[in-house]
């Protein structure tokens, strides 16, 4: 299938390589900057562009992998003039209705994973959640999804909001906790990699236990001596103290349910 990638960021880069490996033809890569478009297009043997006015008409599928905040404007620019084409976006929190009255054939292609351009991931293990305007569109994007992933599911926009919220908790906020831990370690000259056996085991445990069952630590028993002592270590960072206290209370309260 001929595919135009509208975007050259983390997700577009990883997805583009997966599509290329699945023998799809990436005909064009768009990015706001020509440098980024060139970088990815060269790897995918595609034509780069930094102009929405120069988006090709010679693609079967247009995958819009851009920031949520600019999706609406980009869709309004490129979809109405290509009404016979198939468009999907990759955003977890943007409803399918963003295409309504702008495109005839449209859907959502949401790979639930954290992506970085420099990290190679096995796309086969990444769940891809689909939504489409029609049965025919669903068949088409499902074929594309199944060519790169072994875990493809249909999910409505309403339900995808909750999936995306769960992903933010499990990934983005968890990583922020890693960043907070790294700041603490810097105070005593320790590298974050000493935490990796701990973080790895924490992740492995939830393959076998529910997160509720896997929870440990002073907050689950609300050990006030430890909690207060650790709060004092953060006297120079009131925001960290606030987050720590809220997390401790939440863990303790959930442990009682």
UniProtKB/TrEMBL annotation:
Residues 126-251 form the DUF2520 domain. It comes from the Bacteria. Signal peptide: none annotated. Residues 2-99 form the Putative oxidoreductase/dehydrogenase Rossmann-like domain. InterPro entries: 6-PGluconate_DH-like_C_sf, DUF2520, NAD(P)-bd_dom_sf, OxRdtase/DH_put_Rossmann_dom, TM1727-like_C_sf. This is NADP oxidoreductase.
